[in-house]
Write a structure and sequence with these properties.
The protein is mostly beta strands and 112 residues long. 0% of the residues lie in helices and 51% in strands. It starts with a strand and ends with a strand.
C-alpha cells in the first residue's frame, strides 16, 4: 500500500524559508519518481517540482525556479522541498505525489 505523509508547513513571512518533508512507505521508493504539487486558494492543483528515482534531473515550475529545491534520500525514503524567498503567492496546500497516490497535504501560508 502506497503511503506518503507530508510535514513542515506553517506560517512564514515573505522572504522567509520553509523545508517540507514527505515520508514514504509501502512501496519500493527508489524505483519511483517523486513530486510535489500545490493547490493555491481558488486555483487548480499544479506541479511544483519532480525528481527522478535516482535523484537526478529535477524539474521545477517556472514560478519556483531558483527558489525551491527538491531532493530525496532513498535510504530514508524521504523527499524534501526546500523553499526560499517565499512569496505570498506561494501560499497553498503542498502535497507529495507518487504515481496515483497523494498525501493529505501540508498548509504553507506566506504572510506578514
Amino acid at each position: 500500500q502506497f503511503y506518503v505523509e507530508e510535514s513542515g508547513g506553517g506560517l512564514v513571512q515573505p522572504g522567509g524559508s520553509l523545508r517540507l518533508a514527505c515520508a514514504a512507505s509501502g512501496f519500493s521508493f527508489s524505483n519511483y519518481d517523486m513530486a510535489w504539487f500545490r493547490q493555491r486558494p481558488g486555483k487548480d492543483r499544479e506541479l511544483v517540482a519532480v525528481i527522478s528515482s535516482t535523484g537526478g534531473s529535477p524539474r521545477y515550475a517556472e514560478s519556483v525556479k531558483g527558489r525551491f529545491t527538491i531532493s530525496r534520500d532513498n535510504a530514508k525514503t524521504t523527499v524534501h522541498l526546500q523553499m526560499r524567498f517565499l512569496k505570498p503567492e506561494d501560499t497553498a496546500v503542498y502535497s507529495c505525489n507518487v504515481g496515483n497516490y497523494w498525501g493529505q497535504g501540508t498548509q504553507v501560508t506566506v504572510s506578514s
